[in-house]
Amino acid sequence: MADRTKVLVVDDQPNIVDMVATVLRFHGFVVGTAATAAEALARAAVDRPDLVILDVMLPDGDGFDVCRRLRADGHRLGVVFLTARDAPADTIAGLTFGGDDYMTKPFSVDELVARVRAVLRLADVELDERACQVRRAGEPVALSPTEFKLLRYLMLNPGRVLSRTQILEAVWNYDFGGATNVVDTYVGYLRRKLDPLGPPLIATRRGFGYTMRPPA
Question: Which of 54, 70, 104, 141 maximizes the CB count within 10 A of its CB?
Fold first, then answer.
């Protein structure tokens, strides 16, 4: 996956940029860097990265606005926020503004690389919450409201194994009284609609649940 995959690291702390860039290059990624919001947007326009690792607190703005502008400009890329801002409201804001994942500092570089890889696998899936629309590889995918909520929940937890009970509580709400096999049914619906457009996205972990981490 990393072969010629381009990642832009945006942070105003040189030590973090150097560490993250070094680790990503070791894993085979092509890495660019930026220290400000303006530089990040300029580099993204020229380099067209596949993914951006984005700090929220930048000298001339915030990463939320950078992400929003990248999405508004039509950039199809993964966005992983990497920031010291760890309030739940910040996490929700980052994901609402178009982020694919949200990590807080201090962080594990191994976990960061794993999350980058997970997001890149999902980068051909676009979920527009405002319009309630989904595309994969540019093709529209018609989903029911429940299928949409299930896909959204899986995409908000890339690489994390989610039990059927967790999925029921998140998608069908806590007061749902049905059997957990409804989750299996709806995962099957999603697979039949998404898998014809690309590699399988939802993996089964027998005895545990499901994860949005397709085979490499």
Answer: 54
